[in-house]
């Protein structure tokens, strides 16, 4: 008989040959027996367990994407809870009170800065089980865990730090008043959310910009494995935990990287999704079931899924649900109804939940309404949560997600719990305060609350109190307090001066683009044996575009599974090579993930005590244009490293069209205070900028900044570094590249200053020649390496003048360099005019900017530059126009020049090189 391949289901063949029909028949008979003896519900359970075991043993069967709306771990398999249940319950009550009062007091008259109460109220148990039993601090022998706390739950973390003695009442009262809350002359304040830049010894990961937390957590876990597999640090005992909201899971970034974690088998990663069923405005899935939806997606992506749906009070009911009636009601009840149940009472739940089926109504016929109301959801049951966490940390081969069913506003009272407006409720009415106090058994008298309902007291027992002693002991055993961030402890050896020598010599007669010049510099830097291992090249599937494929066979592409295939280009010198200890982070077509990888590497000096140098090179249009929010989060996390916007400029990447033509990334970069942005023209400028960046970010006094360099793909002869070049000018933002010559024109020639950056510098030099040759005008050409840094210096001066308006203030670099020059100043770049406009207010005298405003388009470089009027002849005409307006030359010269150079004819443009790649 001929065996033929059958159809494919979930990537797996389903029509395999039956090699033992008798055994198959026995298995089928066994299934029939289970159905006959135990019923369909029992048979279904057995089948589900078999499928789970098959997946654990890697048999290769389709994964389960959905299970019943019950706990994944049955009560019979739960481990014993190792903690003191009573003390932990009392600790949680203290935390609930202090967290809520922190936010409530921030709403006192005259302050009213807001805050969120309900998120932490729903997740307190989720955090506390971890804090007391799982989350390891930085003094743990294994190095400590990385915890991504849910942003809106920050008051709970502050409340715990208060009990631990890390924060005081004055700090809590400064919640969301970071520059205005002074106590005895000392600023005492807390940021609203996890912001490492604002609180650098406390918070480690910024998370409140929805979707960034889960994305960065995945790449943090990936980076931990990267460090381990490269032999840089043993991270085998470090776990990454990410606490997320079910509403947050609608962000594309929250789910868009699940396959990365599954493909790399990141069993050092656990997501904990707080499924309180509510967004900011209402239910996440009113007509559906978000927990079930997430289960299906995570399972389908290859994750281990643990659902924590019901508290222990449901266990006897489920145990007696022989025919599945209760499970059926649970499965068929929508999230909108579950939310409404909690906003009512036990009688309502009886009528609208249990009485949907006479069999379930019979289960609770002898129960009081209060008994029914006490039935809790799994995310509030520390025993259920402990079982899930323990199972997650013991699971191998895949990441785990824990889906915990909770109630938003839990414990806050009937006006909060499960209400649509809960997220926006920031304070408690007097009656709510009293009810809340009573439920938590806080030692606060009615008179205290009545005398000043805006300032209920915080509650902190003394250090000898058993609750505080227990809390402190648990953290000592687990390696110290969390959250905690630690800064620099180690330094790396930076490359010697000789590493920069080659690119400073220029390219001789060879034409190369600045993108390639940067890659050549990187190769030279990587020859330093001490420095090279710390470099993390990050490339989103464009290595060949950027001329970086030469790195493939040398430092190789990181893949935790190595390379288990023969690459198609195996015989070539530049063959595609993957390795378990590979150095290149090749993220695929994935700019957002690349920034996450950059962030993990760029903060390794703090998260691991091992400084790493991420160098992320990308299409400049797909950097700040697409991922500015992620770069902002990297800045918040105090990341360091190099962002290289390759194929930059609006007219340089010919042929690609609107969505590829970058005319504005320096402007977007300028909005990020931590980004130092440069637009170098030549390779020797790049050498000095990179050297300066390494020293500033990784030298003896490291700064929490990132360097952004725009480099181009237009080939040109890279000149050798001029003798006595103004290195300080390169670093600070501009220097005199080529003074105008008076040879043949006389000392009374009209003067002008032309400022240009990046690929526009050759056009400025072209204009310099045209002006002198055709009109006797002598122009100086300045290379502006950073419009942004020049502007920042100006802003610093303006702030100083505001503070001391009548004092002496030194000139800015722009003022000092241009103050003694003659003639109008014309500035140009391959970006929109807003780029050179950044320094307008500090340019002395007449200032004109040219730029590529508008959408980019596919055409030749020369035609595009003529269209935008930024090429050499256009610059020359702009100079003549300004001179004419100032009465220094006849206006006919400007009119004649425009006609002579055919400025209105895009086919007449010649500025730039017509060919070339990176």
Automatic annotation (TrEMBL):
Residues 1-25 are annotated as: Disordered. Residues 497-716 form the Pyruvate dehydrogenase E1 component middle domain. Its EC number is 1.2.4.1. Keywords: Magnesium, Metal-binding, Oxidoreductase, Pyruvate, Thiamine pyrophosphate. GO terms for molecular function: magnesium ion binding; pyruvate dehydrogenase (acetyl-transferring) activity. This is Pyruvate dehydrogenase E1 component. Residues 146-309 form the Transketolase N-terminal domain. InterPro entries: PDC_E1_N, PDH/Transketolase, PDH_E1, PDH_E1_M, THDP-binding, Transketo_C/PFOR_II, Transketolase-like_C_2, Transketolase_N. The keyword Magnesium applies. Mg(2+) binds at residues 246, 276, 278. Its cofactor is Mg(2+); thiamine diphosphate.
């Amino acid at each position: 008989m001929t065996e033929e391949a059958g159809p494919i289901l979930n990537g797996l063949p389903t029509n395999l040959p039956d090699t033992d029909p008798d055994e198959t028949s026995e298995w089928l008979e066994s299934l029939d027996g289970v159905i006959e003896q135990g019923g369909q519900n029992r048979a279904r359970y057995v089948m589900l367990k078999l499928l789970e075991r098959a997946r654990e043993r890697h048999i290769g069967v389709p994964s389960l994407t959905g299970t019943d709306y019950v706990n994944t771990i049955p009560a019979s398999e739960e481990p014993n809870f190792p903690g003191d249940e009573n003390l932990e319950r009392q600790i949680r009550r203290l935390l609930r009170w202090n967290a809520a009062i922190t936010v409530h007091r921030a709403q006192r008259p005259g302050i009213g800065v807001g805050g969120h109460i309900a998120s932490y109220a729903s997740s307190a148990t989720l955090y506390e089980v971890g804090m007391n039993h799982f989350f390891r601090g930085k003094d743990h022998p294994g190095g400590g865990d990385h915890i991504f706390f849910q942003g809106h739950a920050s008051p709970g973390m502050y409340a715990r730090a208060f009990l631990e003695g890390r924060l005081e009442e004055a700090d809590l009262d400064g919640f969301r008043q970071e520059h205005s809350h002074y106590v005895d002359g000392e600023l005492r304040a807390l940021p609203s959310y996890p912001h490492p830049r604002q609180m650098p010894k406390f918070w480690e990961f910024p998370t409140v910009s929805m979707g960034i937390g889960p994305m960065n957590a995945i790449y943090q876990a990936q980076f931990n494995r990267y460090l381990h597999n490269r032999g840089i640090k043993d991270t085998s005992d470090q776990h990454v935990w990410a606490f997320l909201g079910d509403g947050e899971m609608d962000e594309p970034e929250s789910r868009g990287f699940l396959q990365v974690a599954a493909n790399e088998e990141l069993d050092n990663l656990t997501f904990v999704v707080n499924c309180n069923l509510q967004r900011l405005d209402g239910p996440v899935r009113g007509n559906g079931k978000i927990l079930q939806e997430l289960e299906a997606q995570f399972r389908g992506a290859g994750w281990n899924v643990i659902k924590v749906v019901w508290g222990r009070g449901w266990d006897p009911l489920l145990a007696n649900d022989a025919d599945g009636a209760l499970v059926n009601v649970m499965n068929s009840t929508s999230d909108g109804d579950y939310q409404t149940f909690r906003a009512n009472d036990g009688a309502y739940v009886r009528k609208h939940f249990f009485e949907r089926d006479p069999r379930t109504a019979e289960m609770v016929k002898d129960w009081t309404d209060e008994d029914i109301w006490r039935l809790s959801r799994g995310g509030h049951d520390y025993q259920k949560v402990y079982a899930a966490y323990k199972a997650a940390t013991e699971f191998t081969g895949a990441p785990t997600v824990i889906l915990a069913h909770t109630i938003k506003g839990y414990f806050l009272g009937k006006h909060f719990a499960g209400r649509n407006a809960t997220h926006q409720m920031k304070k408690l009415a007097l009656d709510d305060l009293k009810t809340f106090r009573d439920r938590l058994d806080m030692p606060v008298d009615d008179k205290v609350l009545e005398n000043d309902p805006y300032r209920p007291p915080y509650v902190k027992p003394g250090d000898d109190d058993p609750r505080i002693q227990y809390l402190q002991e648990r953290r000592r055993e687990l390696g110290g307090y969390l959250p905690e961030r630690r800064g620099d402890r180690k330094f790396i050896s930076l490359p010697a001066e000789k590493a920069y020598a080659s690119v400073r010599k220029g390219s001789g007669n060879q034409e190369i683009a600045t993108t390639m010049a940067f890659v050549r510099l990187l190769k030279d830097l990587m020859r330093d044996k001490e420095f090279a291992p710390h470099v993390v090249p990050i490339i989103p599937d464009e290595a060949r575009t950027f001329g970086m494929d030469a790195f493939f066979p040398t430092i190789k592409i990181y893949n935790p599974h190595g390379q288990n295939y023969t690459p198609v280009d195996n015989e070539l010198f530049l063959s595609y090579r993957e390795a378990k200890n590979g150095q290149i982070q090749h993220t695929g077509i994935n700019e957002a993930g690349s920034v996450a990888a950059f962030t993990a590497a760029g903060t390794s000096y703090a998260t691991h005590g091992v400084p790493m140098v991420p160098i992320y090179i990308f299409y400049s249009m797909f950097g700040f244009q697409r991922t500015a929010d992620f770069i902002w989060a990297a800045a918040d996390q105090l990341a360091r490293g190099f962002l290289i916007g390759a194929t930059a400029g609006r007219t340089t990447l010919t042929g690609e069209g609107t969505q590829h033509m970058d005319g504005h990334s320096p402007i977007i970069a300028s909005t990020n205070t931590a980004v130092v942005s440069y637009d170098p023209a030549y390779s020797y400028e790049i050498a000095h900028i990179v050297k300066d960046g390494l020293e500033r970010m990784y030298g003896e006094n490291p700064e929490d900044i990132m360097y952004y360099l725009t480099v181009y793909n237009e080939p040109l002869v890279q000149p050798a570094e001029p003798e006595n070049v103004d290195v300080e000018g390169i670093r600070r933002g501009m220097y005199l590249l080529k003074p105008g010559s008076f040879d043949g024109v006389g000392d009374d020639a009209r003067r002008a200053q032309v400022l240009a950056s990046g690929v526009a510098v050759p056009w400025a030099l072209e204009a310099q020649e045209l002006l002198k040759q055709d009109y006797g005008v002598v122009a100086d050409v300045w290379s502006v390496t950073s419009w942004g840094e020049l502007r920042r210096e100006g802003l610093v001066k303006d702030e100083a003048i505001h503070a001391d308006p009548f004092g002496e203030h030194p000139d800015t670099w722009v003022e000092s360099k241009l103050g003694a020059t003659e003639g109008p100043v014309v500035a140009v770049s391959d970006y929109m005019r807003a780029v050179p406009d950044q320094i307008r207010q500090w340019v002395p005298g007449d200032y004109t900017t040219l730029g590529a405003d508008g959408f980019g388009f596919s055409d030749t470089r020369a035609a595009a530059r003529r269209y935008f009027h930024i090429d050499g002849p256009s610059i020359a005409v702009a100079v003549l126009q300004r001179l004419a307006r100032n009465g220094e030359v006849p206006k006919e010269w400007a009119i004649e020049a425009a006609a002579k150079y055919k400025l209105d004819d895009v086919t007449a443009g010649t500025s730039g090189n017509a060919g070339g790649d990176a």
